[in-house]
Amino acid sequence: MKNYKDTAEKKQAFIDALIEAGGIRQIACERASQKLGRKVHRGSVYRWIKTDEDFAKKVIEANQIGDAMTIDLAQSTLVQRTQGMYYKEQIAIKVKVDQYKEEIKVVEIQKYLPPDYHAAKILLAAKAGYLGYGNHQKIEHSGEVVAEKHIQVMIVNPYGEDVEGYYLDDKNKIGSSDES
Fold this sequence. Notes:
3-stranded antiparallel beta sheet, about 45% helix
């Protein structure tokens, strides 16, 4: 017999973890499993979504919250990259203890990442596209559009200098220029 309290706990742990995981279900299953000390299977999650309408709604809400958090994090990182940023990194160094002995120590150092032009370009495209920043192209056309019925294809023989002309007719059949 199934323990419904256990299933309800797993469902809630999964929903909580899904928000923290930015909407990524596999990571949410792993985090929920760690939190509970028992496995939350992805297959179970998909079955719960199909059979439990309330749970399915909670998953959609958790995805939206997780997505918003992920977007916010990505956006703040992008802003930091446009301004330049300091970050900490751990490195291993050898330290001489005495004449014959060395130790490896892990130290934390602070590094500087200068402003990134590409990050600024991406941020402007997203935030100020209406001002003309971004990857927008405006194509204007005046006059009449004429549709061609034939495409000229040249096949070159790499072993000789013979060049033959072929074309596709309006029914996409290949024809030779010799047939004309």
